[in-house]
Amino acid sequence: MQLRDNYKYAYISTAVTTQVHSGQGQLIAITLGTTAAGTISIIDNTTGSTVNIATLKASVVEGTYWFLSNYSAGLRIITAAASTLTVIYSPIG
User: Fold this and answer.
1) Domain that holds residue 68
2) What is the pTM of this model?
3) Neighbour tally for 85: CB within 10 Å
4) 39-49: buried (b, 16+ CB within 10 Å) or exposed (e) per residue?
């Protein structure tokens, strides 16, 4: 897998559904600053809530979680509580 050099980021700090990117791309990492008692769902899609990339459990340890995973439809993050996180990704195309 090749890393790209056109990284972008999205900062999330509330319990919300965030469409980080629409279209193909690569999820590089998620850095958690603080975690709350709610899961973080990572989805390859532009609609819905069916997790197909990963779920970070409620109150997961703060730090950087590396994925280096491609997604095809879009990158959607659902935070069930007010965790603070930065999603680092790279659009393809």
Assistant:
1) 8-91
2) 0.91
3) 22
4) bbbbbbbeeee
Q: From first to last of its 93 residues, what are the pLDDT tens digits of the chain?
A: 555 578 999 999 999 999 999 999 999 999 999 988 999 999 999 999 999 999 999 989 999 999 999 999 999 999 999 999 999 999 997
Give the H or E element holding residue 55: strand 54-56
What CATH number does residue 34 fall under?
2.60.120.340
In whole angstroms, give the CA distance from residue 22 to residue 67: 18
In contact, 90 and 4? CB cutoff 8 Å: yes
- CA separation for the pair 70, 40 (Å, rounded): 18
